[in-house]
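Example complex used in Figure S2.
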Amino acid sequence: MALLEVNSLSIDYRTSRGVIHAVEDISFSMGKNDMLGLAGESGSGKSTLGLSLLRLVPYPGVIADGQIMIGGRNILSLSEEEMRRLRGKDVAYIFQDPMTSLNPVKRIGAHFVELITNHEPSTKKVHAIERAKKILDSLGIQSERLNDYPHQFSGGMRQRIMIGLAIALNPILVVADEPTTALDVIVQAKILDLLESLQKSYGLAVILISHDLSIILERCSSIVVMYAGHMVEYASSKELYRSPLHPYTQGLLKSIPNIELEDQKLSSIPGSPPDMLTLPKGCRFRTRCSRAGEKCQSKAPALIEVGNKHFVRCHEYVEEGVRNE
Amino acid sequence: MNEHKTKRSILASIVPNFKSLARKGPSGWMVIFGLSIVLALVMMTALGPFVAPNDPNRTNSALITLPPSPQFPMGTNHLGQDMLSRILVGGSLMLQVSALSVLICFAVGVPLGLFSSYVGGIPDRLVSLVVDAVYAFPGLVIAIAVAAMLGPGAINMALSISVVYIPSYFRIIRSQVLTIKELSYVEAAKAIGAKWYTILSRYIFPNVIPSIVVVMTVNFADAILTAAGLTFLGLGVTYDIPDWGWDLTNGKQYIASGSWWIIMFPGLMIILLALGFTLVGEGLSEMLNPKLQK
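Predicted assembly (619 residues):
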């Protein structure tokens, strides 16, 4: 049984200027020990989707439709109190900016104690501290530093602490929302290594949200590519790397520098993502797509499976991978 | 490590530690100087009844409006009362009233600001509207209206001053909470399943404390001036309690005849006390505001 199953999920932001469909009709599933990548540009709905797994979509966002099954339970039908108990314990979230994600007036130890005693009221403070020390040790941070304040740590250390807080209660699912965006490349690699090793040793399911497709390709077993709230492609990493189908994914892959090619020109995708309030008719990507035809202007493509669990949302393809032209 | 030191001295400025305050430079000295003035005046008022050379209330028609002399270092007033004795004793009401009003303001303004801005939406709009309406009036006018309604007395004075200053607390706290509640660590607290009151008390409130401390000291200084204003206008206390504000009221009639000492000494004391608190407030605000730190 899948550990996380998202079925035709739609999330709307009901703003005063109109309804924004930030996430529309998204379905995917992942099992234990899986690492799923969520790739897309800013504003494509990645973080909204991530936050919806904790039901923390910020106001005025509402989950308009669909189902989120975590461990067999539909979290959309849980009460607010049941949801609160699930947050941090079953599903943990790692935020993008480690510099502001820790309470500046609380010591690191207090963060752990609060998390642990909040979900396990019977645990004594000393025991919580003991557990926190073990976690810090496993993250490569000296356990005496529990008594330090967040500002005494570097960005990479703070992100490690955030990861420690996320795994402290042995969750089944960890959502890492651009965990390395605020960090430099060396620290980035270390943090991702740490995340991957923890994922393996604890058997976690990890959703890695990133705008950097190369990170996701390297670390994740399967990938969801999002564009303007739509899932445009969903496949395993290998499959996606070998044969990207959607023009957007192809563009993304072409924009990653390759160390083996000597004289390579990096291409970029022209234009910018559409305004979510005034989406183009038909395919959402057609304004930037070099291969857009007449059909793309009139009709939005549906998500189809082209075989081998490879899904794509583009008129160029029909089911089972036969070219349409 | 420098940041670490800053943190320490912020704590030290809340629990005074003169040594580390002095190391903070000019703002530290401001706090030390202000605190010394306030403490000296508080001690003076506390010891006043024991050291006053004369009964501050005893009138003597033979000794009216005498200029300062060795026998009466600060002269006497129009009732022949010894001004030095009145100065030594007369601060207690003012101190009580301002302390009480700061307490009331704190007890009402802080929770109101925290809850209203955290809840947000229509309740917050309503509370803000009412508070802003109060804020729109000149402070003394409201204080006078409330004091006239409640009648004289220390507690009533404190209440009328509180009405003036609660909006300041509310507005400062609200603006801070509105920023803090959008910060990532508050969102992170939600994501680990913290209860709403935990978020409010452990994540938001401690981060607002620095601004509250500053508003409190400024509020203290202002309360003294408002209290003096109220007694000056006869809305404070009755004549049998020696009070700097009351002396100021009566002294003003005698300036024309050249009896400057009746009004000067109580006026100086009020200025000194207000100055003390203002110095503490300004020093603290400079110290606690990370943007003003080197």
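The first strand of chain A starts at residue 4 and ends at 15. Residues 228-256+274-325 of chain A form one domain.
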